[in-house]
Amino acid sequence: MPIVRFPALMKYYVDNQNEFSVEGSTVAEVLENIIVRYPALKAHLFDSNRILRRHFNIFVNGIHLRELSGMETILKEDDKVILMASAAGG
Asked: What is the DSSP code (8-state) at residue 25?
């Protein structure tokens, strides 16, 4: 199963885990399975149209989704999916 790594600020929503395995053959399936397991994450990851919020970046094995096939990127058993929240300051 692919391994998903979460930002430290989001650990609260995933039982204080930094990373864990999730079933899914695409990034979209992995995210859907994460939401099934941790429903409180839905509002933080997706907007009301079920589109990933702009401040989240997703990387598969260190490569940004926009350089791959987006949410339909095919995942292999040992892939690492990293969710990274953008930081803003003022």
From this structure: S
Domains (range + CATH), the chain = 3-85 (3.10.20.30)
List strands edge to edge, sheet with 80-85. Answer: 19-21, 3-5, 80-85, 56-60, 63-64
Q: Can you say how many angstroms the Cα of residue 51 is from the centroid of all Cα atoms in its chain?
A: 12
N- to C-terminal Cα distance for the chain?
39
Question: Which residue shows structure tokens 């204080």?
Answer: 16
Instruction: Read off the pTM.
Output: 0.88
DSSP letter assigned to residue 11: G
**pLDDT above 70: residue 90:** no
pLDDT tens per residue across span 14-49: 999 999 999 999 999 999 999 999 998 898 888 889
Would you give the DSSP letter of residue 78? T
